[in-house]
Design brief:
Layout: E1 3-9, H1 17-27, E2 32-38, H2 41-50, E3 56-61, H3 66-72, E4 75-76, H4 78-83, E5 88-92, E6 95-99, H5 102-114, H6 118-122, E7 125-129, H7 133-144, E8 148-153, H8 156-163, E9 170-174, H9 178-182, E10 187-190, E11 214-217, H10 226-233, E12 237-239, H11 242-257, H12 265-277
Parallel strand pairs: 1-2, 1-3, 4-6, 7-8, 7-10, 8-9, 10-11, 11-12
Antiparallel strand pairs: 3-5, 5-6
Helix pairs in contact: 5-7, 5-11
Length: 278
């Protein structure tokens, strides 16, 4: 029997998720499909209510539906509950389980790019730029990995609200105080849209970062953002945003199709080729 999964959003034509899951389905010879579904916000609740009888094993949820999926799922993983958003749904016994795989996806990409021992080598303080939904998942993932996190955002109130998730391991920082914080930072993460195609670059002097530090950007269009170019020019380890997209897809595929896939160079090359083509 064909197993079916989906990615739902509005709009959705830009999503690379079908390429990722289609690659794994073909690689492993699985009888399955993965579809793009464009569902407007006003129709999303009805869409979710009908999922248990739709024949889908589950699917991914993207903008603008992650918070709505969080509210409407029948059960939630602890991580999804902490983050307050759902990007992965699994149909189980007629009920919807909501999960958030962005946090482990980001950490898995860091482990693959920097080596499993990176926190010991770079240092256990991370600075996260931004305080939106992506930042929330990344802060949770970094704290789970044993790091203390400093959050800088143009809106101090949002940074403080995010730090309140775990005051013992996270604190807010005024944007203008960033240079001072960078001096003791092992990992700098940009979760803002600055540097994304069509947006202004992130203007940040990296001179204060220690030589052991790494810089990550969740933007993957372009793959080499001005921030990452500046990091490489300084001789720092630089981690692009594409790997997070690839690694966050792994748990969902395993739940829907019964096999845990690998993020391989061939998969990455396929997605990079698609990015270049478009």
């Amino acid at each position: 029997m064909t197993r079916k999964a989906f990615v739902v959003g509005h709009p959705i034509a830009h999503s690379r998720s079908p390429l990722i899951h289609g690659h794994w389905l073909a690689e492993h010879g699985i009888d399955g499909t993965y579809e793009r579904l464009d569902v407007a916000p006003e129709a999303f609740e009805a869409f979710l209510r009908g999922l248990p009888d739709s024949g889908f094993a589950g699917g991914n949820v993207t903008i603008p539906h992650k918070e709505a999926a969080f509210r409407l799922a029948d059960t939630l993983t602890d991580r999804a509950r902490t983050i307050g958003a759902v990007n992965t749904l699994v149909v189980e016994d007629g009920r919807l389980r909501g999960d958030n795989t962005d946090a482990p996806g980001f950490i898995a990409h860091l482990d693959r790019s920097l080596g499993d021992d990176w926190p010991a080598r770079t240092g256990r303080q991370a600075v996260v730029l931004g305080a939106g939904g992506a930042a929330r998942a990344i802060v949770v993932g970094l704290i789970e990995r044993g790091l203390s996190v400093v959050i800088a955002n143009r809106s101090p109130e949002r940074a403080r609200a995010l730090a309140a998730l775990d005051p013992d391991h996270a604190r807010a920082l005024p944007w203008e105080a960033l240079p001072e914080a960078l001096a003791g930072t092992g990992l700098l993460v940009n979760t803002t849209t600055l540097g994304m195609a069509g947006h202004p670059p992130l203007a940040l002097d990296l001179a204060a970062l220690p030589d052991r530090a790494a810089v990550a950007d969740i933007v993957y269009v372009p793959l080499e953002t001005p921030l990452l170019a500046a990091a490489r020019a300084r001789g720092l380890a630089a981690v692009d945003g594409l790997g997070m997209l690839l690694h966050q897809a792994v748990p969902g595929f395993a739940a829907w199709f019964g096999l845990r896939p690998e993020v391989t160079p061939a998969l990455r090359e396929r997605i990079v080729a698609d990015l270049v083509a478009t």
